[in-house]
């Protein structure tokens, strides 16, 4: 079997191409939601991770972390948010609410009671809303949340590039997904998910070396359990398959990330206020056996939030109300940027997975 045939066979697993439907309500019609799970998902005794991906994150993230999930003895879920993959698009003002409606129904569909939450970049907005409104889906014996390269508004990060972008009219984002699709398919290495043209183009000016390196045989075996030639074919097919499906949701995701309108971020419009409100609610809980664990992984050089965004995020989770309420741990992944914090070799996903799998009750 050729490397290409092997890659197609691996990516065609039915676990990576699932869907269910949100029933129509008085606020929206029936909506289709596509998602992926790790291939070991039928093992019901294993803990479950719900990954809340970045701006261009899709269910295909599941393919990258499937082998790691299996070896870490966890199960993994990735969901296409509205306007991605086969998921129905919705108005920008409904994106967060539809996500909050999707999560509990998806978990019920999968017969899952509890999850750990992990987010990257723009997924921060959705994760924080999930944590506040759906706190009960975390395991009371070990509530666990991890935020990698958390997104911070340009108002607090002071990143000039994003401040300028936020002043563009909404019409400027109408073709965003198509432009970024061209950039990602032709100029940017596969795996640059969280901002496409913004973060990937900006990363050209960072001092870190290019991440477009040939996958070693050792890394190929660790990631996929196959040879490097097959992994190279997989990387190419992932980008091709991903952009062959709907990616129009990226237009609204870009506007949402840049604060395109009051109320788009739900309960976390103001992170500082969010932390105070969340901690107040957390202290009223009586069904948690342990403090919530909140792990934050910063990149060494993050051009999307800068040093100002990092300092702000540290400050809001360092407020007095957090002590004795949330067990916050913040680390920096050495040698990483906003994108490569998810890198299989440099990132810390493997440590997070093994922490969840090795210590879950």
UniProtKB/TrEMBL annotation:
InterPro entries: AB_hydrolase_fold
Protein name: AB hydrolase-1 domain-containing protein
Annotated organism of origin: Cercospora beticola
């Amino acid at each position: 079997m050729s490397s290409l045939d092997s890659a197609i066979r691996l990516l065609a697993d039915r676990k990576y191409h699932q869907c269910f439907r949100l029933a129509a309500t008085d606020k929206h019609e029936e909506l289709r939601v596509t998602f992926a799970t790790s291939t070991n998902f039928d093992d019901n005794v294993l803990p479950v991770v719900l990954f809340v991906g970045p701006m261009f994150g899709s269910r295909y993230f599941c393919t990258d972390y499937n082998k790691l999930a299996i070896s870490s003895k966890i199960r993994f879920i990735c969901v296409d948010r509205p306007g991605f993959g086969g998921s129905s698009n919705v108005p920008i003002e409904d994106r967060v609410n539809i996500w909050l409606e999707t999560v509990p129904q998806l978990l019920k569909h999968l017969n899952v009671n509890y999850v750990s939450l992990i987010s990257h970049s723009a997924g921060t907005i959705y994760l924080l809303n999930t944590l506040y409104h759906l706190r009960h889906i975390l395991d009371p014996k070990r509530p666990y949340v991890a935020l990698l390269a958390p997104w911070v508004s340009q108002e607090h990060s002071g990143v000039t590039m994003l401040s300028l972008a936020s002043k563009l009219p909404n019409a400027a984002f109408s073709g965003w997904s198509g432009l970024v699709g061209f950039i990602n398919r032709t100029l940017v290495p596969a795996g640059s998910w969280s901002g496409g043209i913004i973060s990937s183009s900006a990363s050209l000016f960072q001092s870190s070396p290019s991440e477009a390196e040939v996958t070693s045989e050792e890394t190929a075996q660790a990631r996929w359990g196959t040879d490097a030639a097959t992994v190279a074919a997989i990387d190419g097919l992932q980008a091709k398959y991903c952009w062959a499906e709907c990616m129009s949701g990226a237009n609204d995701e870009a506007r949402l990330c840049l604060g395109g309108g009051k109320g788009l971020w739900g309960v976390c419009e103001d992170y500082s206020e969010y932390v105070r409100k969340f901690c107040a609610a957390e202290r009223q809980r009586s069904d948690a056996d342990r403090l919530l664990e909140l792990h934050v992984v910063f990149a060494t050089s993050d051009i999307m939030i800068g040093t100002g965004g990092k300092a702000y995020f540290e400050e809001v989770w360092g407020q007095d109300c957090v002590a004795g309420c949330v067990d916050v741990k913040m680390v920096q992944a050495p040698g990483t940027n906003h994108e490569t914090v998810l890198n299989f070799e440099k990132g810390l996903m493997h440590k997070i997975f093994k922490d969840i799998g090795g210590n879950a009750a």
